[in-house]
Amino acid sequence: MSVSKNFESVYRASIEQPEAFWREQADLIEWSKPFDTVCDYSNPPFAKWFVGGETNLCHNAVDRHVAHRPDDAALIFVSTETDTERTYSFRELRDEVQTMAAVLKAQGVAKGDRVLIYMPMIPEAAFAMLACARIGAIHSVVFGGFASVSLASRIDDCTPKAIVSADAGSRGGKVVPYKPLLDEALRIAKHQPTSVVLVNRGLSDMPMRTGRDIDYAQAAEAHRGETVPCEPMAATDPSYILYTSGTTGKPKGVQRDTGGYAVALAASIKHIFMGQAGETYFSTSDIGWVVGHSYIIYGPLIAGMATVMYEGLPIRPDAGIWWQMVEKYRVSVMFSAPTAVRVLKKYDSKFIKDADLSSLKALFLAGEPLDEPTARWISEELGKPIIDNYWQTETGWPILSLANGIEPQTTKFGSPGIAMCGYNVKVIDEGTGQDITTPNTKGVVAIEGPLPPGCMQTVWQDDARFVKTYWESIPGRLIYSTFDWGIRDESGYYFILGRTDDVINVAGHRLGTREIEESIASHKAIMEVAVVGVEDKLKGQVAMAFAVLKDAAAYATDADKLKLEGELMKVVDEQLGAVARPARIRFVSLLPKTRSGKLLRRAIQAVCEQRDPGDLTTMDDPSALAQIKSLVAG
Ligand code: AMP
């Protein structure tokens, strides 16, 4: 099929003849063995893409380009935290990845073993991810902002053979030690890795445990120059696990395949991001999130683009730093989050005007709802298309956006766009399970199986949870739920209206309210607690906690309560990380619940946002909500 200029027909083909559509997209990557079957969906909802084929993510991201353009820029590292700037060509990147791969192999890491990566945004983090892909190890990157309990639960779930970490990160000029958090996590965890490979940046003390901890610089010296070939991987072999929050306290390990992921990323860079080999891609995300996996590391590199990896804040040394980077590195595609734009909006727009942004084709924003004023402001200041895109850790690449690479399309502010090729998106009536076909009618955004290539294969080691959580939440139907409310208008544009579950989104970071509740409740003073997401002008949402004390008399004064609030914040910081810290923790004598004891989080949220809490006939004791109301008013 030749790519038609008409998006509608290309999209239809991707849904009606997915085999032909994806067979053509599969040519965007290199295979060491061709596949026999494009999609095996004989056991729904488990989709197997490119069955029989063999490929390697690292080969496609690195070695493949070394063959044609060894000296072109591949990884551009900029840290305004340590004042470091370094560009690695494809050849240099391959050499660094081989060194890291040799170090991991020397530690006994082999195909199928897990490697947990807990690192700041430094080149060695990229080397580690690509090295795992090279040797067929399954990486699991844990966001550096997470702390010991979050880390320990992930260590126990993915049971890594090795961990790659560093002494510290740095944020706003302040050193954030990683090693003590990792040591604490390993003290709590049941599973122990054979080795911990540590990059010493010289930022913080890094006491080493003999027999387990390895200094990367020393190990790298011993292995530099070694050749480590790319392991041929079945298209369906897992490439990585990335944990994400859900409704329970236990994070889900989203498992991704190899071949389908590579093809989906290559197709998305072409059709959605309009990126081309030789250009530069700059995503301001972090490798700990899915955007970092897909659009800092794998996507741009697979497409032969240079990718910018930035350690630092958007406003330091000043609010022009990102635009200066766009100018200096001739960035053509930029990807960020609405929160970051809302932060920049507070600063003088001369920071944008002063930079030469002629290389930039578009700014893509995702991770949370993009409000219209923010979209308009940045669109006017930049004078470039602003392209919203909606997706999830689970899908790995955009579900909704605009495929301007296929046919230029109109932006509708407030809408992340239309369904992308391969995604058979539906709006479903939550009660009946029926499709909603009337435009502008609210329902659950769902995707008919098979999910396209690149989407999650399963929950790591838990097929039953994958099916139950994602595919059986809508009555009478086996259909993937995004757990987002949405509407579709008469022209096929979607509008996302918030989560249907207890997941909240703080500054584009997805957090489970249950995890935060469990952390606060681990303090001896707390009997029970409810955490809700409350609308915030800057961060989209912030977490608010309401806790019931075991002994209220022990915290009688305001000063006692403030002190306890500080202690509880510290507990959350130490267990989950500052990213999960609630904006406030307030104390009440009881929580609003139904007569059967179910916490009425939505009613709490409504009261916090000064909205009508809706039907409260099932509520047990109305005074509970009244207490929250008066605290909020105060
Ligand atoms: P994550 O898995 O961390 O990427 O979070 C995915 C969730 O973030 C989605 O289910 C949505 O609730 C929200 N989200 C992501 N992108 C957008 C967007 N462009 N517009 C609205 N919500 C979004």
Task: Describe the secondary-structure layout.
Blueprint: H1 7-16, H2 18-25, E1 37-43, E2 46-51, E3 54-55, H3 57-68, E4 73-79, E5 84-89, H4 90-106, E6 114-118, H5 123-135, E7 138-141, H6 148-158, E8 162-166, E9 168-171, E10 174-177, H7 179-188, E11 195-199, E12 213-215, H8 216-223, E13 233-234, E14 240-244, E15 252-256, H9 259-271, E16 280-283, H10 290-302, E17 306-311, H11 321-329, E18 331-336, H12 338-344, H13 350-353, E19 362-366, H14 372-382, E20 386-389, E21 400-401, E22 418-419, E23 424-428, E24 443-448, E25 458-459, H15 463-471, E26 480-488, E27 494-499, E28 503-506, E29 509-512, H16 513-521, E30 526-536, E31 540-549, H17 558-575, E32 584-588, H18 601-608, H19 623-633
Parallel strand pairs: 4-17, 6-7, 6-8, 8-11, 11-12, 16-17, 16-18, 18-19, 19-20, 31-32
Antiparallel strand pairs: 1-2, 3-13, 4-5, 9-10, 14-15, 15-25, 21-22, 23-24, 24-26, 26-27, 28-29, 30-31
The structure holds adenosine monophosphate (AMP).
Note the main attributes of this structure.
634 residues; 19 helices; binds adenosine monophosphate; seven-stranded mixed beta sheet; globular; five-stranded parallel beta sheet; Luciferase, domain 3; alpha/beta; GMP Synthetase, Chain A, domain 3
Question: Could you walk me through the main structural features you see in this protein, from its secondary elements to its overall organization?
Answer:
- Helices cover 32% and strands 25% of the residues.
- It is of the alpha/beta class and 634 residues long.
- Helix 17 (558-575) links the parallel strand 31 and strand 32 (584-588).
- Helix 3 (57-68) packs antiparallel against helix 4 (90-106), helix 4 (90-106) crosses helix 8 (216-223) and helix 9 crosses helix 10.
- The model has no long low-confidence stretch (mean pLDDT 96).
- The structure holds adenosine monophosphate.
- Adenosine monophosphate is lined by residues 244, 290, 366-370, 388-390, 392-393, 416, 482, 484, 496, 499, 505, 510.
